[in-house]
Amino acid sequence: MTAEGAAVAGAPSRIEGGVDAIVVGASADGLVAAAYLARAGLKTVLFENAADIGLPVRRRAYGGDKHGVDAEHLVFTLDPQVIDDLELYRHGVSFAARRLDTVYFFDDHEALHVSGDVRNAANDIDDDDEAAAFTTFLEDVFEASSFLRPLFSGAAGRDFKKAFNTASPALARRLNWMMTASVDDVMASYLSEGRLRTAMTAETVFRTSSAPHEAMSFAGLLAKWSGEVAGLQAACGVPEGGVTVVIDALRRAAQAANVDIRASSAVRQILIEKDRAAGVSMEGGGQVRAPIVVAAGDARQVFLSLVGPGALDVAFQQDVAAMTPKTATAQLHLALRGSPRDEETRANMARRLVFAPPLEALRASFSNARQGEVSDGLIIEAIFPQVFDQEAVNSKMQILSVMAHPLPFDENPEKDRQEEIRTAILSGLEKFAPSISKRIEADQLVLASDAPAVGDGRASAFAARPGVVRQLALASLCASGGRIGGLYFCGPESQIGAGLNGAAGRNAARAALQKFTRAGGAP
Amino acid sequence: MIFPADDQLLEQPRPTPLYAACASFSEANVWTSVNGFAAARIFSSIKAEYDAARNGAAIADFGPLSRYAVRGPDAAVFLSRVASVPAGTLTSSESARGLMLDDDGHVLDLVEISRLSDDLFLMTTSSSQARRLQLAARGLDAVVENISRSVAAIAVLGPGAYEALAAAGLKTSGENSASSTVLRGVETAARPLQFGAVAGAELIFPADEALTVWERLLRRGKVTPIGLDAMEILRIESGAPRPGADFLVGPNTDQHKRSSPVAIGLPHLAPLDSGWFNGRRALRYGARKSETVLVVIAVDADVCQAGAAVRSGNKDIGRITSWAWSPSLKRAIAFASVPAGAAGKVDGWTVQAGPDGQAAASLMKTAEGALAAAFLADQHSSTESASIVR
Q1: How far is A276 from chain B, CA to nearest CA, in Å?
Q2: Which of A5, A64, A371, B5 falls 20 to 30 Å from B367 in CA-CA distance?
Q3: Which of B80, B135, B144 best tests the A interface by mutation, with the highest count of A CBs <10 A?
Q4: Are residues A505 and A36 in contact, defined by beta-carbon separation less than 8 angstroms?
C-alpha cells in the first residue's frame, strides 16, 4: 500500500480526486487493464480486497510444508499481445514446460500419448487410416481456430457474420458448421469410434457446461485451440514456479507502469452519477473519483452489488442474475507418499495426464451435474507441479494437482457434498493410477465456491463456462458495462473459454482509452 | 391515460366493478373489451358525450387500466428506473406522465405516476405490466402491489369536472394535486387527469364502493357518462397516440416493429438530459434513427379507415393508424404513420377515404404535437453543446 493509500484509509470522509482511472479487483485481467491504462499515461489506481495481490492463484501451504497451486495449474491461452505489450518475459514469466505432452487414459486401462505440439500429434498414432483421419481433423480445426482467434479474444470486435464473409466459401461453411454443431457430430464426421474420439471429446467439453451431444458444444475446442502458449497454438504450458508467477509478473508490470496498487482496500460501491461512472466509494468510508472505472470482479458482483440494480436496465439485470452456473470444475491437491519406481511413471509425471471417461458416462455426468448430483464419469486432468518447480525438486513428497469436471455448482457446499466430490475424484484417479488413495498423506479440495475470481466475488474461475455462443453474447453484453458511460468490465464473463488469458483486460483498457481520448481527456 | 387498443378477438370480457352501472346507463349497448375488461363504446350519442366532455363534465369507467401501488424506501428509485418519470423529484401530491421503455429504447407503455406520500406512489399503465414491474423491483427495497383488481376508477372529464365532484361531495384536494385517504383498507386516491386536451380528475377507490360513487356523481354532479368512441375523438384531437393501435407494444412484438419515443410523437416524455431510466442509454448512445413518425392529419372527408394509404402525389408514403370524425372540425381526423423525412412537408397529401376516392389531407396542430416540437427544438440546442463532451 502506498503512503497516499494509507492516508485515504485513515481518513474515512475524504474525497480523493486527480485520478484518471480506477480498476476494481486485482485479477489477471484487472492487472492487465491497469497496466495498459497507466502505460497510456493515465493516473491509475487499482483496488483489491485481499491483502495479497493475486491471492486466488497464490501458492498456498497445506498439510505442513507441502504446497499446491490454487486455481489454474496450466496455461493454455495467455494472450500473446499482453505478453508482448506488458513485457511479461522481462517481468519474470518463463515457462518450465511450454509444450506439455498429454497422456489420455481410458476406462479399458489403455493409454494414448499425444504430443504437446498438437499439429504433429497424428504422428503418434500407429494405425495409418486413423492417423490420416486425425490429420484432417487437426488441420481443419486449426484453420478454423486460427481464423476465430481475433474474434474470441475480442481484439477485432465480435462480428462473426462480417468476419465469416471474409473467409473462403469452404472455410465459411466449415466455420458455420463447427460453431453450431455438437461435439458428437463433428467427431463422428472425422474420427471413427474409439479412444482418439473419446480423448478429443473430453478435451473439448472439459470446463464447459455443454455436454458433447448438445448443439454448439464443439465451439469449446475452437475457443481452446485458438489460444497459444509461447508461440505454439493449442499448446499447454507450465510457467516456471506455477501460474502464480504470471500474476506476479502482471503485478510487476502494473507497478512498473506506475499503477497505484492498493491492497486491503475493499470497494463498497461504484458511483454512478448522471448515468456515468464517477468513481468508487470505499468500504471504510471515503470516495475516490475518476471518469473511468474498470471492474474486474464477476458480473453478478460488479453489476448487482457494486453498481446496484437501481442503475441497471431491467433486462440486463435479469441476464446478469441468470448467470449462476449449474456445473463447475473442482480441484484436488494431493500430497503423495513415496517416489515413482519405474522410468515410465517418472516420464509420465512430466506430462499432462487426462482421464477421458466413456462417452455415455460423460453424458450422464453432465446431466447429473446439472441436477446437482455427483457422478464418477468425470474428466480428470492431473499434473505434478513439483516436477516443474526447481525449488521443490528434492522433496520426498509428490504433489498432484487434479482438476475434475463436470460437477454440480454449489454456492455453499456442505461437508457431505465435499466428501462426495472428493470420493468421486479419487475413484476417477484410481481408474488410471490404481491404489493411489493409499499413498495420500494430505489432501485439499478446492471447489468453485472456494476459488473466487477476485477477492470475495461469488462466481469463480472454476465455474463451468457456458456454451461458446452464449459466452460471446454475455461477453459483449458485459463488456459494454451495461451501457453505463465510463464503466468498463473485464471479469470472467468477458472472456471466452476458461483459464488465464488477459485479453479481456486489454480490451477493457482499449475501450476506455478510446473514449477517454475522444472526450478530449488525453493525458 | 390513454386506453390501449381493443382486444377484438376476446369473446367474454370480464366486468369492471362499474360494469353494472355502465350497463344500466347504456342505451346504445355497444361494447368492446380493453385489457380483457368490458368497456362501453357508446352510452347514448357520441356527439352528446363529446360535447359534455368539451363543455361540461363527463364520467368514464377507467377500470380497464392497470394500476399499481408502489411503496418502500426505494420506491422513487424503482419508478425512475422503470419509467421515464423522475419520481424522486415529485413532491407529495404531484403527478407526472412518462413512458416505459425496453432496454433498447423502444416504447412498451404509457405511464402516469402520482406521489401520494413520501414512500407511496400510485402508478397507472395502459396495459398490464405486472411481470415487468416485479422483475424491475428485484434488488430494490420497493414493493409493487397490483391493485388493478381491487379498485374501481372513474374519470371525470371536462371544464365542469371539479364542480361536479364538489357537488357530489367527493373530496378532492385541488385541481393540480393528488390526495389519498384509506377507505376500507384500500388506498383511495383522487388525482388530476389530462385526457388528451381535456382536463379532469380521476377517482380511484375500493371496488365495493363503485356503484355508490357512480350514483352520487350522476345524481348530484350532473355528469354525462362517456364511452370509448367519444373519448377516441378527444384523444386524436389532442394528438395522443394509442398503444396497440397507433404503435405496437407488448412482449410479442418484434424488436424491429417497436417504436422509439420520437417515432410515436412523444419525445418530450423521455427527455435524455434529466435522470436515468430504463432504455435511456440505448436512446442516447446509438439507438437507430426512427424511420417513421406519427402525425395527426385532418382529412377532407367524413369517413376514413385505419390502414388506408396516405399518398403524396402518386406515391404511397404511409398509412392511417386510427381515425375519428371530429364534431368541431366537421371532418375526419386521423393518426398517420409516415416516413420521418416526410412529416414536415404535407403538401399535396391525399388519403384513400371511402368510395369517393382520394381526399386531401392537411397536418393538424395538436397539444401533444406542440409539446414535442418545443421539446425537440430545445433539445437540439442543448445537445449541440453536450455532444462535445460525449
Answers
A1: 10
A2: B5
A3: B135
A4: yes
DSSP category for residue B346: -
Q: Quick one: average pLDDT of A287-309?
A: 91
Q: What are the backbone angles phi and psi of residue A332, rounded to the nearest 5°?
A: -125, 120
- Cβ neighbors of B76 (< 8 A, separation 6 or more) are B87, B88, B90, B121
Give the cell for residue B206: 375500493
Taking the CB of residue A490, how many other CB atoms lie within 10 A of it?
A: 33
Angstrom distance (rounded) from CA A226 to CA A154: 12
* Higher-confidence position of A395 and A348: A348
- How far apart (Å, rounded) are the C-alpha atoms in residues A152 and A33? 18
Distance CA A9, CA A318 (A): 35
Q: Closest to B74 (Cβ–Cβ): which among A310, A313, A519?
A: A310
Question: Residues for chain B: how many in total?
Answer: 390
B251 or B217, which is more confident: B217
CB nearest to B389's CB, from A272, A275, A519: A519
Contact B263, B294 (CB under 8 A): yes
> B155 phi and psi, to 5 degrees?
-100, 130
Q: State mean pLDDT over A487-512.
A: 88
* Closest-CA distance of chain B to residue A51, Å: 30
- Indicate whether A30 pLDDT > 60: yes
Chain A positions in Cβ-Cβ contact with residue B81 (cut-off 8 Å): 309-311, 314
Of B77, B102, B285, the CB nearest to A315: B102
How does DSSP classify residue B290? P
CB B311 within 8 A of CB B358: yes
Contacts of A321 in chain B (CB under 8 A): 138
CB contact, 8 Å: A3 with chain B?
no
Contact residues for B97 (Cβ-Cβ < 8 A; gap 6+) = B1, B85, B110, B111, B112, B113, B194, B269
Q: What is the DSSP string of A357-380?
A: --HHHHHHHHHHHHTT---S--EE
- Give the cell for residue B176: 393540480
Which of B77, B132, B282 comes nearest A310 by C-beta?
Answer: B77
Residues of B with CB under 8 A from a CB of A: 74, 77-78, 81-82, 102-103, 132, 135-136, 138-140, 275-276, 278-282, 284-285, 388-390
**pLDDT given at position A390:** 64
Q: Per the structure block, which three cell numbers stand in for A425?
A: 475424484
As a whole number of angstroms, the distance between CA A322 and CA B116 comes to: 35
Candidates A175, A80, A484; CA nearest to A303 is: A484
Question: How far away is chain B from the Cα of A339, in angstroms, using its nearest Cα?
Answer: 55
Give me the mean pLDDT over the A503-522 stretch. 82
Question: For position A294, what pLDDT does the model report?
Answer: 95
Show residues of chain A in contact with B390, CB under 8 Å: 485, 519
- Judge contact between A368 and A374, C-beta under 8 A: yes
